[in-house]
Write a structure and sequence with these properties.
By secondary structure, the protein is α/β, with parallel strands linked by helices. The protein folds into two domains: about 80 residues, Ubiquitin-like (UB roll); about 90 residues, Translation Initiation Factor IF3, CATH 3.30.110. It is about 30% helix and about 20% strand. The strands form two sheets. The chain has a four-stranded mixed sheet with strand order 2-1-4-3. The protein is rod-shaped, with a radius of gyration of 36 Å. The termini are far apart.
């Protein structure tokens, strides 16, 4: 087998240099960052936004000069817009604001927790009050409560008794949770679901009803003079 002769490709000219980049802020950028900045932006013109800049559409070269003159970065924030939108601000501050916003959004979208409470069709009063206390605690913590009566063997004959028990349970928790569904029988289980009420929602309603103005009493519109 004959080897092909090695032919070197064209050499890079000795005077060739890379385009001058703005490395002042690039050191803080890593591979996970998705926003192009400064010389990474490939658009020919951009819409400029930010503090201390005159907002409008600029050629990319002029936008870069404006950012450099303020010792800030040109950050691409809306690449799909026409033209793309760039913000003039410090890149590290921009990333800090993004992380802060993401943390706030994560805190708002809290994980939904469902707590289960099981009854028998003939639960005694002590056990009922014990489980009621637990359900109040769960609802106050912001968790949903799934309560069910489990019918074992021939106890399915007491399904009406189980329904009464669950409705009583929902009624006793009215101050802390709202009933999402009426008792539903699925196999050997009859189930209800309760969602926590917002703190103070019940008190606000009571206060509103207490302070509602009373309807004014009707005045006697009979203006006919008394007979002498």
């Amino acid at each position: 087998m004959n080897k092909k002769p090695y032919r070197p490709g064209p050499k890079r000219p000795s005077n060739a240099t890379r385009p001058k980049g703005r490395n002042r802020k690039m050191s803080g950028k890593n591979d996970e960052d998705t926003n192009a900045i400064n010389d990474e932006i490939r658009a020919s013109e951009v819409r400029l936004v930010g503090d201390n800049v005159e907002q409008g559409i600029y050629p990319i070269e002029e936008a870069l000069k404006i950012a450099e003159g303020l010792e800030l970065d040109l950050i691409l924030i809306a690449p799909q817009a026409e033209p793309p939108v760039c913000r003039v601000m410090d890149y590290q501050k921009f990333k800090f604001q993004q992380r802060k916003h993401a943390k706030e959004q994560k805190a708002k979208s809290t994980k939904l927790v469902v707590k289960e409470i099981r009854f028998g069709p003939q639960t005694d009063e002590h056990d009922y009050n014990f489980k009621l206390k637990h359900a109040i605690g769960f609802l106050k913590e912001g968790a949903k409560v799934k309560s069910y009566v489990f019918f074992k063997g021939r106890s399915i004959l007491f399904k009406e008794q189980g329904e009464v028990l669950l409705l009583r349970f929902a009624n006793d928790l009215e101050e802390y949770g709202k009933l999402d569904q009426m008792p539903v029988l699925e196999g050997k289980r009859m189930t209800i679901m309760l969602s926590p009420k917002k703190p103070g929602s019940g008190k606000k309603k009571e206060a509103k009803e207490a302070t509602a103005p009373e309807a004014p009493a009707q005045q006697d519109n009979d203006n006919t003079p008394d007979e002498e």
